UniProtKB/TrEMBL annotation:
Similarity remark: Belongs to the transglutaminase superfamily. Transglutaminase family.
Organism: Podilymbus podiceps (Pied-billed grebe)
Keyword annotations from UniProtKB, A to Z: Acyltransferase, Calcium, Cell membrane, Chromosome, Coiled coil, Cytoplasm, Extracellular matrix, GTP-binding, Hydrolase, Membrane, Metal-binding, Mitochondrion, Nucleotide-binding, Nucleus, Protease, Secreted, Transferase
Protein name: Protein-glutamine gamma-glutamyltransferase 2
Chief place of localization: membrane
Transmembrane segments: none
Subcellular location: Cell membrane; Chromosome; Cytoplasm, Cytosol; Mitochondrion
Cofactors, names only: Ca(2+)
Enzyme Commission (EC) number: 2.3.2.13, 3.5.1.44
GO molecular function per UniProt: GTP binding; metal ion binding; peptidase activity; protein-glutamine gamma-glutamyltransferase activity; protein-glutamine glutaminase activity
Residue span(s) of domain Transglutaminase-like: 269-361
Cofactor note: Binds 1 Ca(2+) ion per subunit.
Record InterPro entries: Ig-like_fold, Ig_E-set, Papain-like_cys_pep_sf, Transglutaminase, Transglutaminase-like, Transglutaminase-like_sf, Transglutaminase_animal, Transglutaminase_AS
GO cellular component, one term: nucleus
Length: 688
């Protein structure tokens, strides 16, 4: 027999991409999911492959130093009966000189970029030929993959969807902001793989790191550490919370992860400025979805940051309601992290499913700024000793808050109000633009027998301040929504629940605030020394907050914190009430002109009305949407936008992909920043 000569080959990127749901990553490279067969075609010149005469074998290798014992290298022969456990190659069909071969990795294979080599031998003569590279991803569709997710709609949302909503605002005023995850956009996959190869564990021991890339728990921990740069590890984002962002991008201005990841790569893996919790979480979600691990961004309202681990957050207020910084413990208006879906074979049974991963740098875990994966089930059950970082997340949703009011003489009085942590834990619903409340995944109903059992197990004495005490009650109410640019009223509502007359002092104070709990200057105040309440009576005391007072110091978080202190003269008790008022911004209007069809030009008309009493300068619209616009489109307005006038642009774009997409818009100016809007657009497929 003459030698078998390989002439050309075809990795069938397009067909395999379709079957493996990776087609949107482009047909220039082969991207497949583990445990699922993919097809390649080999063309031989002269004569075709003959079974029994020719021997064919394949070599796959990943990482800088592939070895078989680490699972980063495998050699397997073309057979009719592949072995159960390893890689396999089976003849699919043969047609003269061309041979169709089906290759398949085990569902526990290492993910990453592989090189593929074919060895052919006839008799004693053998040659080997490198036939290309492919990328192997996790496979949520394969029942034996540790990231297997049963429901197809959930796989669509948590692995394939490139766009979503992230919840922000305040507990009483939940807002959603659109986000372009863009995990299939050009170059994002290679950047995600680069992120794995930049992580300190890889640089320390490349072989060991690559051999652990079959485990989503390990990958999740690496991603959680690499999205922030607090360990001098060439991480993706630098965090900043002090409202000074001039030497970078304000965290509120980002509208998607693609821009951030591309900047990180372009500038030689230097941290991108700046991120805050939702930016860290969204970038981590992009990386995890890109690698094939089902993931979602979740928001926890009134999130505790318990630095000393005692599950109590102590806050100190002066008699005038000003916060005194005596403790590093904080309460964030909201805090975002990621949940990723995976099995936990490293733990006892019962902890598979959603795992919390928090890439925002807060506390160190095993010497590194990362957090998780913490099984959400373990947080709910109070199993604090399991891996990883469960006490920290448990505190974020369960800590108690105690307000101490510091009198002039330095003595402290404990307030009879415990502010409530871990509320309205939210994520985007599957397949819809609505909010799903997942608080029940993290905690049992308040006051239930199960809640008491969990706290006993976690050695957490929940304060008994929950029970309404006799005497005076205090609440802060808003008459209607508060909008940036307008004056508005807040009301302290005092109720006397006793049969005797009560005399008290009321202090009301409003300050601009950031979402991580820090406050700025005062923008409204009232001190009433003698309020008399008849038995069973209720009184409502208004405080008017003027635009001219908050305009200068309102941060980009658009929050005003209102603190009310009520002192009963008879008992000396102090009651505290706190409310975060979210200042609504203008609405961005988006009109789509033309018939939305693949590869056909569309026009978007985008506008916003200036709600402020002053002109807006340096106005910019930033528009992007995976599958719609080619990257980011930036439109600057030449003229200032006068009060009550309209800022308006037209944008042309040619949609590349059919299906449902979000066109996302961010508006920036000198006085209004981080205004977001989006519009769902259904793109019809190009007629064949």
């Amino acid at each position: 027999f003459t030698d078998l000569v390989l002439e050309t080959w075809d990795l069938q990127c397009e067909r395999n991409g379709r079957e493996h749901r990776t087609a949107e990553m482009g047909c220039q490279q082969l991207v497949v999911r583990r445990g699922q067969p993919f097809t390649i075609t080999l063309h031989f010149s002269g004569r075709g492959y003959e079974e029994g005469v020719d021997k064919l074998a394949f070599n796959v290798e990943t990482g800088p130093c592939p070895i078989e014992t680490s699972g980063t290298k495998s050699r397997f022969a073309l057979t009719d009966f592949p072995e159960e456990s390893g890689w396999s190659a089976v003849v699919q069909q043969q047609d003269g000189g061309s041979l169709c071969v089906s290759l398949c990795s085990p569902p526990s294979a290492r993910i990453g970029r592989y090189s593929l080599t074919l060895e052919t031998s006839t008799g004693y003569q053998g040659t080997s030929c490198h036939i290309g590279h492919f990328v192997l991803l996790f496979n949520a569709w394969h029942p034996e993959d540790t990231v297997f997710l049963r429901d197809e709609d959930e796989r669509r949302e948590y692995v394939l969807s490139q766009q979503g909503l992230i919840y922000q605002g305040a507990r009483d005023y939940i807002t959603s902001t659109p986000w372009n995850f863009g995990q299939f956009e050009d170059d994002i996959l290679s950047i995600c793989l680069k992120l794995l190869d930049t992580n300190p564990k890889f640089l320390r021991d490349q072989n060991q790191d690559c051999s652990r890339r079959n485990d989503p728990v390990y990958i999740g921990r690496v991603v959680s550490a690499m999205v922030n740069c607090n360990d001098e590890d060439r991480g993706v984002l630098a965090g900043r919370w002090d409202n000074r962002y001039e030497d970078g991008m304000s965290p509120m201005a980002w509208i998607g992860s693609v821009d951030i990841l591309k900047r990180w790569k372009t500038f030689g893996c230097q941290p991108v400025k700046y991120g805050q919790c939702w930016v860290f979480a969204a970038v981590a979600c992009t990386v995890m979805r890109c690698l094939g691990i089902p993931s979602r961004v979740v928001t926890n309202y009134n999130s505790a940051h318990d630095t000393n681990g005692n599950l109590v957050i102590d806050r100190y207020l002066s008699e005038t309601g000003e916060e005194e910084r005596r403790s590093r413990d904080m309460i964030w208006n909201f805090h975002c992290w990621v949940e990723s879906w995976m099995a936990r074979p490293d733990l006892a049974a019962g902890y598979d499913g959603w795992q919390a991963l928090d890439p925002t740098p807060q506390e160190k875990s095993e010497g590194v700024f990362c957090c998780g994966p913490a099984p959400v089930r373990a947080i709910k059950e109070g199993d604090l000793q399991l891996k990883y970082d469960i006490p920290f997340v448990f505190a974020e949703v369960n800590a108690d808050v105690v307000y101490w009011v510091v009198q002039r003489d330095g003595s402290q009085r404990k307030s009879t109000h415990s502010s409530v942590v871990g509320k309205n834990i939210s994520t985007k619903s599957v397949g819809r633009d609505s909010r799903e409340d997942i608080t029940h995944n993290y905690k049992y109903p308040e006051g239930s027998e199960k809640e008491r059992e969990v706290f006993a197990k976690a050695e957490h004495e929940k304060s008994s301040l929950r029970e309404e005490n006799e005497g005076l009650h205090l609440k802060i109410k808003l008459s209607e929504g508060a909008n940036n640019g307008c004056d508005f009223d807040v009301f302290a509502v005092i109720s006397n629940t006793t049969g005797t007359e009560q005399v008290c002092r009321l202090m009301l104070c409003a300050r601009t605030a950031s979402y991580n709990g820090t406050v700025g200057p005062q923008c409204g105040m009232k001190d009433l020394l003698n309020i008399t309440l008849a038995p069973w009576a209720e009184k409502s005391v208004p405080l008017r907050i003027l635009y001219e007072k908050y305009a200068e110091s309102l941060t980009q978080d658009n929050l005003i914190k209102v603190v009310a202190l009520l002192t009963e003269y008879q008992s000396g008790n102090v009651i505290v009430a706190i409310r975060d008022v979210y200042m609504g911004g203008p609405e961005i209007k988006i009109r789509i002109l033309g018939e939305p069809m693949q590869q056909r030009k569309l026009v978007a008309e985008i506008s916003l009305v200036n709600p402020l009493a002053a002109p807006l300068n340096n106005c910019v619209f930033v528009v992007e949407g995976a599958g719609l616009t080619n990257g980011q489109q930036i439109k600057e307005l030449e003229e200032p936008v006068e009060p009550k006038a309209e800022a308006k642009i037209r944008l042309d774009f040619v949609p590349q992909q059919a299906g449902l997409h979000k066109l996302m818009v961010d508006f920036e100016s000198d006085k209004l920043t981080g205004v977001k809007g989006y519009r769902n657009v259904i793109i019809a497929p190009q007629p064949k």
